[in-house]
Design goal:
Blueprint: H1 2-26, H2 32-35, E1 49-51, E2 57-59, H3 60-63, E3 67-73, H4 78-94, E4 100-106, H5 111-121, E5 127-129, H6 134-139, E6 146-150, E7 156-161, H7 166-179
Parallel strand pairs: 3-4, 4-5
Antiparallel strand pairs: 1-2, 3-6, 6-7
């Protein structure tokens, strides 16, 4: 009987100690940090070749050598609309920088709804349609908005799931430029 009580006490102590260790490791950690990490970080960005809203095409090959901000979105997405002004502000400040570009990739939306939104909101950066969400699937997006920054060497250096701010974009682009 004493040995059984002793075994239960030891097991309880081990469980409590394990719980304390896990708690100590995770205290102060942002639970969104892991959720915001893309499986592509540090890897080559997926190749894409997409139709632009204006009728032209855009490809990863055509943008190679630049820092690329890719923003997955659609016209009916409320968080996408919330981040829109940050994208406008960032693009206005950076559109003349030949070393960087921004590409909006629209998924799960119609061309007409997208065109209406782009016209109404004065979007001036390139907007690509993603038929069948092939690019979104290749990037492993979890929804929209979702933003990826690709270094000039083609490596995914940063991602943000959810709305971005100008500061977020600047930080991600800075990381891409450091990687080269």
């Amino acid at each position: 009987m004493k040995s059984r009580v002793r075994v239960i006490a030891i097991i309880t102590a081990v469980v409590v100690a394990a719980f304390a260790i896990v708690l100590a490791i995770n205290v102060g950690r942002d639970p969104r940090a892991d959720a915001n990490r893309s499986r592509l970080l540090g890897r080559d960005a997926p190749a894409y070749d997409l139709p632009l809203l204006n009728g032209d095409r855009v490809s990863s090959e055509a943008l190679a050598g630049k820092t690329i901000v890719i923003n997955f979105w659609n016209s009916w997405c409320i968080p996408c609309r919330q981040e829109h002004q940050a994208l406008v502000d960032w693009w206005s400040a950076n559109k003349d920088d030949s070393a960087v570009t921004m590409l909006g990739i629209v998924r799960e939306d119609t061309k007409s709804a997208t065109q209406n939104y782009v016209d109404a909101e004065g979007v001036t950066w390139p907007i690509a349609m993603d038929p069948g969400s092939k690019a979104a699937l290749a990037f492993g997006t979890r929804g929209q908005p979702e933003t990826y920054v690709i270094s000039p060497s083609g490596v995914v250096v940063a991602s943000q799931y959810g709305p971005v701010t100008v500061a977020n974009i600047n930080e991600m682009v800075g990381a891409a430029r450091r990687v080269g």
